[in-house]
Design goal:
The structure holds 2 protein chains of 2 kinds. Chain A contains 13 helices and 18 strands. By secondary structure, chain A is an alpha+beta fold. Chain B is of the alpha/beta class. Chain B has one domain: Rossmann fold (3-Layer(aba) Sandwich), CATH 3.40.50. Helix content of chain B is 49%, strand content 18%. Chain B has a 5-stranded parallel sheet with strand order 2-1-3-4-5, with helices on both faces. The longest helix of chain B is centred in the last third of the chain and has 19 residues, at 119-137. The chains are: A alpha+beta, B alpha/beta. Chains A and B meet through α9, α10 and α11 of A and α1 of B.
Chain lengths: 616, 138
């Protein structure tokens, strides 16, 4: 998601290298941190252990002095009050503690013996009376804090023990010695280089120190460090030293004397090592990164060159040129793509050849198709012409039929008119011609002429196609149609029987419907005449079934032969011969009923003839 | 035309014609021409046969193409009843075929007149028939 979609391989490989190097950097950082914390923990631990051991050494030293004093306190000279002997004994003891002094005082603090003075010389009272008081109050030995000698101004330490006589504390026996004695024990504990060690009294005042002892002895340790010490008997702290240097410090307090031993190491010393490791880690990681990036750039350049070298052959293939070899690929995948491109080129060439061949075939096929289409168009044109001819013939036949019917319809009135025309001269001879006769004669003649004119109108209306649908009564159309052809039926003595079972109406084209009736009736008439049926008869039924009009027209001409009954509605099918029939009548009838009016026109054979059924 | 020979008893002339106008005109004209004759009419062949059975006729003037029963069939029936009856057939071209066929079958038709009918021909035919009736009755 950080890489742009169209970035280069080099760029992407750089990302890859970065992704590989990042853990190295993280591990290096973690190792440095771990090394630092481990180092600090180790130093703290070491300091604490050393401090603990050193505390024991200090306690041991103080206990030794205390033990020597307690041994002196048991001298019988105290009981006898022979302080001269006590003075001698102290001098004897002090041979083991050079530089130290021993003082014997009573409960008021009055010095009775002072090893620093010759016996018998007048002596003052004790300076630190608090210690004397503690001895007489508790009867237990006491170690003082550091104090400076009133005369010598030297840093001193005092240890007081009680002198019991008959179970009561009578005297205070104390030894005072220089803090140098404590400083002397510090080198005994070997500590690592850079460390320093201090001994603190109960007030946190430095009693002895491994470094710059003269400068700091007698001064109170750093406040922060004192606060840390106040909270625990032993521990470590990250504080500033008395010299103001940031240090790691460890301390341990003696439960007996309340003194403490501290060790410290400047942070700079600790961090120097850490910084060294850090430098190594950063250096190493940087080197690895640079090598990685350098290698990645090299590899990327090679891959990119390989891939870019495929561009030209690919473009050539795209332009339809033949590429036979693409050489010099050092990357396996690229070499595979190159081989695939060569193969693709070959396949494309093959496809192109196939396509050319297919196109040639196609163009040939198209040419054939074109010829075939032209042939078909010609055939269709011929058919159309033939059809037009047939329709023309059909129209002519219909016209002939109409003229025949008109002729028949007119024959009677013409005859009557003829008779009327002859009447005036005849009746003139009889002497019957007068105005009345002539008026009646003219009236009668005009009536007949009117009737003849009406006949023509009827036929013209009948053959005029309906443009729009009308709702019409089936029965009326049947009657109208029969009236048009009754003459030709009459001439052949054909009985027409109409059975009205219902009075249905149709929403359609009445003239076309009548034409269908006419076609069927004329077919029936013709076939009955042709077959010489002795008593020709047509039965027409009009009925309404389930909301549809049903008209059946049955003749008694013997029916349609079974082998052609399925073909009677086919166009151009006729049994009448070319002179009489066009084969269009029933086809047109079926078209009118089924396509124009959504009905059904069927035929079947009954016992004595055919029955057509018109359902609309 | 009163000088035309007439039978002893007034002749009965039956006009069988389905066209009302023609029938009526013929009746009026024949009645006027042959004053003593009795004219009766029928609409078609079947009615003609029934009428003939009922009252008989001397001369039958008939059309050929008619509903229910044509002129030829009717004449056959009437001839069957009365072989001597005189018949005048009025026909148009369309009826001529049936007429020719009946002649071929040996059916004797004495007179036939083509439509449109000319009175002269009709009167001549009636006169001939009346003369035949007169000679028959001598």
């Amino acid at each position: 998601m950080f890489i742009k979609k169209n970035s280069t391989i080099r760029f992407q490989l750089s990302y890859l290298v970065a992704a590989c190097i990042l853990p190295v950097w993280l591990i290096a950082g973690f190792l440095v941190l771990h090394a630092y914390t481990a180092k600090v923990a180790q130093i703290n631990k070491d300091m604490l252990e050393t401090a603990r051991a050193m505390t024991m050494v200090v306690d041991q030293e103080l206990t030794n002095v205390q033990a020597a004093l307690l041994a002196l306190a048991t001298s019988p000279s105290f009981k006898t009050g022979d302080f001269k002997d006590v003075h001698r004994q102290t001098l004897e003891l002090l041979k083991s503690y050079p530089g130290a002094d021993i003082i014997v005082a009573d409960s008021t603090g009055q010095q009775l013996v002072n090893s620093y003075r010759p016996f018998g010389a007048p002596l003052p009272k004790r300076n630190n009376f608090n210690l004397v008081r503690s001895i007489f109050d508790t009867g237990r030995p006491v170690t003082s804090n550091l104090f400076f000698g009133a005369v010598t101004k030297r840093p001193l330490i005092g240890i007081d023990v009680p002198v019991f006589i008959d179970g009561k504390v009578l005297y205070d026996l104390s030894m005072t010695f220089s803090s140098d004695r404590m400083a002397a024990i510090l080198p005994r504990q070997h500590s690592p280089e850079g460390w320093y060690c201090s001994i603190l009294d109960r007030n946190g005042v430095i009693v002895a120190r491994t470094r710059e002892s003269k400068r700091y002895v007698g001064k109170q340790a750093n406040l922060g460090f004192l606060q840390a010490m106040a909270q625990a008997r032993e521990g470590t702290a990250d504080v500033k030293s008395i010299a103001g240097v940031p240090v790691l410090a460890g301390f341990s307090k003696s439960p007996t004397s309340g003194w403490a031993v501290t060790f410290g190491v400047p942070k700079a010393t600790v961090m120097a090592e850490t910084y060294q490791w850090m430098a190594w880690a950063i250096g190493g990681a940087t080197t690895i990164s640079l090598i990685g990036i350098f290698l990645a750039m090299g590899i990327a350049r090679r891959i990119a060159q390989d891939i870019q070298s495929l561009v030209d052959p690919a473009l050539s293939i795209g332009q339809g040129q033949v590429v036979t070899t693409i050489g010099g690929k050092s990357v396996k995948e690229t070499a595979e793509v190159a081989r695939a491109l060569v193969k693709a080129s070959q396949l494309l060439q093959q496809r192109a050849k196939e396509r050319d061949s297919a196109e040639k075939e196609l163009s040939l096929t198209i040419e054939e198709l074109r010829k075939e289409t032209a042939q078909r168009l010609r055939t269709m044109e011929e058919l159309r012409k033939k059809e037009q001819l047939l329709i023309q013939q059909s129209r002519q036949a219909a016209l002939g039929e109409m003229i025949g019917n008109i002729a028949h319809q007119w024959r009677q009135p013409l005859n009557a008119l003829g008779l009327l025309v002859q009447q005036p001269p005849l009746f003139y001879d009889f002497g019957d011609v007068d105005k009345q006769f002539l008026e009646e004669h003219a009236k009668k003649s005009m009536g007949i002429i009117q009737h003849m004119s009406q006949t023509i109108d009827d036929f013209r209306n009948f053959f005029k196609p309906n443009k729009e649908k009308l709702v019409f009564k089936v029965r009326e159309e049947v009657t109208k149609t029969l009236s048009l052809i009754e003459g030709s039926f009459q001439g052949r003595q054909t009985a027409v029987q109409v059975e009205v079972k219902g009075d249905p109406v149709i929403d359609g084209y009445p003239n076309e419907y009548s034409q269908v009736l006419l076609n069927i009736l004329i077919n029936a008439r013709d076939v009955m005449t042709e077959r010489g049926i002795p008593v020709p008869k047509v039965v027409i039924t009009i009925d309404a079934q389930e909301g549809r009009s049903v008209v059946t027209i049955a003749d008694n001409a013997g029916g349609i032969p079974e082998e052609i009954i399925d073909k009677v509605f086919d166009p151009y099918f006729t049994t009448k011969g070319p002179q009489a029939g066009t084969g269009v009548g029933l086809f047109m009838s079926k078209t009118i009923i089924e396509k124009n009016m959504g009905g059904l026109l069927t035929v079947r054979n009954l016992e004595c003839g055919a029955e057509f059924r018109i359902e609309v | 035309m009163n000088d035309e020979p007439m039978p002893k008893s007034p002749p009965v002339i039956m006009v069988v014609e389905d066209d009302k106008d023609t029938r009526e005109i013929l009746c009026v004209v024949i009645q006027r021409k042959f004053n003593g004759a009795t004219i009766c009419t029928a609409n078609n062949g079947r009615e003609g046969v029934e009428l003939f059975k009922k009252q008989g006729a001397d001369i039958v003037i008939t059309d050929v193409n008619m509903p229910e029963m044509g002129g030829v069939e009717m004449v056959q029936a009437i001839r069957h009843l009365s072989p001597d009856v005189k018949v005048i057939v009025l026909t148009a071209d369309t009826g001529k075929d049936a007429l020719d066929a009946s002649i071929q079958r040996g059916f004797q038709l004495v007179h036939f007149i083509l439509k449109p009918v000319a009175y002269q021909s009709l009167f001549l035919a009636i006169d001939k028939c009346l003369a035949e009736i007169a000679s028959d009755s001598i």
